[in-house]
Amino acid sequence: MPHDAPEHSHTGISPSGHPYRADQDAPLSYFQNMEIAMRELLSEKGIATEAEINAEIDRMDSRSPADGARLVARFWVDPAFRERVRADASAASREMGFDIGALRLIAVENTENVHNVIVCTLCSCYPRNLLGFPPDWYKQRAYRSRVVKTPRSVLREFGLDLPGDVQVRVHDSTADMRYIVIPARPTGTADLNETALAALVTRDSMIGVARAQSPA
Amino acid sequence: MVERVRVARMMPPGHVRTPSYLRGRIGRIERDLGHFGNPEQAAYHLEASKKRLCRVRFSMSELWGDAAENPSDTLDAEIFAHWLESAPD
Amino acid sequence: MSEPPGRRWHDMGGQSAGSVVPQDHDFALWEKRVDALMVVASAKGLFTVDGLRRVLEDMGEAAFETHSYYERWILSINQNLIEAGAYTLAELGTRMTVVRGRGETYGECARPAGDRDG
């Protein structure tokens, strides 16, 4: 699974047996103090037990862009599945075995003439239950402010320069829907199987700030 | 005929999910999404009544005028129907 | 296109801003716990994601500039839980003092349940 930010990875994090990170050894912050105290109180009151918290962390850790990439790959190769994604992308995700909970997913497709990009200008809504956590930049001021007004300029900052005959469609996740971009299938991939195709699909291509990668 | 709508211009001071850059703008309903609990109530521990939610599509020229990079680029947002007024052609 | 009066700080679409900085960070354990707490407590019906957002918005722009995402989230979750009557501020304050007294680091203060004596 290729990564767009080379310094680190969210995927492959094992919730058990993971070595303590540096923050475990840093002085306790006020907010960490709150978090521990709140979690203990809620557990003692039976509102949110340690087991439930840990199970949720495990669930969160199991989600990553690789899941979305598999959905995109199947969309590319399987016309009947493609129609099911178009009809109900949440149901299609569950069909693939992904535990997406209550996620209401809409898949927007890139073509030769259309390029989609996703944002939440009001906060940071993101299809977490399918793709895992959003990148920091997605939640920050510059992206949220500018992509709805000058999407092409923002995309150029990501290295994506779109010609004038491609229509850009921006989707602002203002309410209950969440969005995934189905990037265009790269050329020269007719002989690749689903697994190899999924490896070309990056997180950023499913947000819409990049294309899927071309085969090596 | 796709329904043409205008987003209400009001600016109430509280938790609403209609971005200010869309208020007063004209778009077309891209699809109906069904009914969802009103976030304006849920945010304040009130029982949220179900309200009709629509995806509305705006052209970038409608939103930004001459500042639009490409007038035919579009912006889709989910807007609750109580924020939408009919805007016949 | 003049800006309508009454735009709230979090309502950022269309505002001027600098370049996108493609930064990202690995999540600390305490951050994952904050996130998980939000999911579990909201699933139990103690508050809604709408309430979470409302408190984040009401916190104001200065908080957005000075506190990290999960610092603001734990503040918002706490306020929502106080409003829901899940615990009292006195209970929280007392427990925070106890937690703080266990050591210096997050790891020392967040000892697993079996190791804790109160």
Q: Return the CATH class of the largest domain in chain C.
A: Mainly Alpha
Q: What is the CATH third-level topology name of the largest domain in chain A? A: Nitrile Hydratase, Chain A
DSSP summary, beta strand count of chain A:
4
Beta-strand content bin of chain A: 5-15%
Q: Order of helices and strands of chain C, N to C?
A: HHHHHH
Q: Which fold name corresponds to the CATH topology of the largest domain in chain C? A: Cyclin A, domain 1
Architecture of the largest domain in chain A in CATH?
Answer: Alpha-Beta Complex
Our Rg estimate of chain A from Cα atoms comes to: 19 Å
End-to-end Cα distance of chain C, whole Å, is 59 Å
Give a written overview of the molecule.
- The longest helix of chain A is centred in the first third of the chain and has 15 residues, at 30-44.
- Helices cover 39% and strands 11% of the residues of chain A.
- Chain A is globular.
- With 216 residues, chain A is α/β, with parallel strands linked by helices.
- Chain A starts with 29 loop residues before the first helix and ends in a 9-residue tail after the last helix.
- Chain B has a single domain, classed as SH3 type barrels.
- In chain B, strands 4-3-2-1-5 form a 5-stranded antiparallel β-sheet.
- Chain C has 2 domains: 25-86, Cyclin A, domain 1 (Orthogonal Bundle); 88-118, no CATH class.
- Chain C has 6 helices and no strands.
- In chain C, helix 2 crosses helix 4 (69-84).
- The longest helix of chain C has 16 residues, at 69-84.
- The mean pLDDT of chain C is 91.
- Chains in contact: A-B, A-C, B-C.
- Chains A and B meet through helix 8 and strand 3 of A and helix 2 and strand 4 of B.
Write out key terms for the chains shown.
heterotrimer; A: 216 residues; Nitrile Hydratase, Chain A; two-stranded parallel ribbon; B: 89 residues; mainly beta; 10% helix
Structure summary:
The complex is a heterotrimer of chains A (216), B (89) and C (118). Chain A has 216 residues and is an alpha/beta fold. Chain A has ten helices and four strands.
Task: Record the SSE blueprint.
The complex is a heterotrimer of chains A (216), B (89) and C (118).
Chain A: H1 30-44, H2 50-62, H3 65-77, H4 79-87, H5 89-95, E1 104-109, E2 114-119, H6 128-131, H7 141-146, H8 151-157, E3 167-172, E4 177-182, H9 194-198, H10 203-207
Helix pairs in contact in A: 3-4, 4-5
Chain B: E1 4-7, E2 26-37, H1 39-42, E3 50-59, H2 60-64, E4 74-80, E5 84-86
Antiparallel strand pairs in B: 1-2, 1-5, 2-3, 3-4
Chain C: H1 29-43, H2 49-59, H3 61-66, H4 69-84, H5 89-100, H6 106-109
Helix pairs in contact in C: 1-4, 2-4
